[in-house]
Write a structure and sequence with these properties.
The protein has a domain of 90 residues: Cytochrome c-like domain (Cytochrome Bc1 Complex, Chain D, domain 2). Helix content is 56%, strand content 0%. It contains 6 helices and no strands.
Length: 152
């Protein structure tokens, strides 16, 4: 029995080692085109989309949402959105912008998409790696970020 466990452990270690070396060779080879003008395959895109959505939701679920119906908060958010967001996320009546066609993945048109307030707050504050979405939490306080969420 001990020989069987030892053999199994060695097999697992060898397989993991081969996978690590193969992954390292793939990454270092540069064979994968990281250019924003060369889209991911459907399976890779689906995995990345699920990873992004689950990561955001898990990290935002305990946030306490303030009253988002406050007209002053919405007005403040409208100004913030106009200044910082329309280039990528558009505004009502906008069809495109100078920067938007070159973004991949394409950011949601927030004038046509409903986003969970907790998720929106988390994304605005923390940004999303390897995308054009910056982390506005470095330059904006939480009440200002909530104003953008209220506007949305």
């Amino acid at each position: 029995m001990k020989k069987h466990i030892k053999h199994h452990s060695i097999t697992v270690a060898v397989v993991l080692g081969v996978l690590a070396v193969g992954t390292g060779a793939f990454v270092y080879s540069g064979i994968y085109n990281i250019g924003a003008d060369d889209h991911h395959t459907k399976p890779v895109f689906a995995v990345l989309q699920t990873l992004r959505n689950r990561s955001i939701h898990v990290r935002s679920e305990d946030l306490k949402v303030p009253d988002l119906n406050d007209p002053q908060l919405i007005l403040k958010g409208a100004g913030q959105y106009a200044a910082m967001c329309t280039g990528c996320h558009l505004a009502p009546g906008m069809k495109t912008s100078e920067i938007r066609p070159g973004l991949y993945p394409q950011p949601p048109n927030l004038s046509q998409t409903r986003i969970d307030p907790k998720d929106a707050f988390w994304v605005i504050k923390h940004g999303i790696k390897m995308s054009a979405m910056p982390a506005w939490g470095f330059s904006h306080d939480d009440p200002t970020i909530w104003s953008m969420v209220a506007f949305l």
